[in-house]
Amino acid sequence: MGEIGNGTMEDTYTHLPVQIDPASKAISIAAAASSSSSSSNTALGTELTSLNTLHRSLLNLDTPTPPPPLPVNPKRSAQIQKLRESGNASFRKGQYADAVRMYTFGIEMAVGRPGWEPAGLVRDEVAALYANRAQAHMAMQNWPLGMLDAEASVEMKRAANAKAWWRRGRCSVEMGRLDEAAEWVTKGLGVEDDADLKALAKEIEMAIKRKG
Fold first, then answer.
1. 154-200: pLDDT as tens digits
2. What DSSP letter does each residue of 103-165 carry, written as one string?
3. pTM above 0.85, yes or no
C-alpha cells in the first residue's frame, strides 16, 4: 500500500492468463478469463488482436528477413594464415616435423573459432591445413597419418581440392592398398577433372594388373 498526501492508494494486480494456438501461433485470452467482460479484458483483447495481425503480416512478407552480419575476427584469421605460412616455410626447408607442428596449431586455432563466425570459412581453413599436414606426413613416409589428414581435408571441402584427393590416393598406394586407392581415385575423378589424379588412376590400374 502506498500513501499520496492524506489519501491512500491500494496497488492491485489482476492475472489474465493467455494461451497460444500451437498451429497458428495466435495468442488469445484463456477461456476462464475471457468469460469476464471487464474493461481490462477488452483492452487486452484489442492488444492481442493487433499483435496477431502483425504476426500474420510478417509471415506473409515476400521478402525474406536478411541474415545478421557475420563478423570475423581479423586477428585470428591473420594468426591462422601466419601459422600456415610458417608450416610451408618449414616444409620447404625439409623440417617436416616442425611443419606438422605449425599446421596442427593452425587447425586448432581454426576449429576454435566462435560459433557465430561463418562455418564455410572454418571449412576452407581446416581443409587447406589438413592437406598441408598430409603432405608433411607423406614427406616423412608416415602414410597412415597422411591418409587420414588428406581424407579429413576432402571431408571439409570436396570440390576444388584435387591435391587432397591425390594425396589420399597416393598414401593408399604406398601402403599397398591398391583396390582402396582405385576406388578413392575414381571418386575423386567424379569431383575433380585433374591431370595428376588421372595419372595416378592409370598407375594404380597397371599395378593391379601386375599384381593379378
1. 999 999 999 999 999 999 999 999 999 999 999 999 999 999 999 99
2. HHHHHHHHHTS-TTS-HHHHHHHHHHHHHHHHHHHHHTT-HHHHHHHHHHHHHH--TT-HHHH
3. no
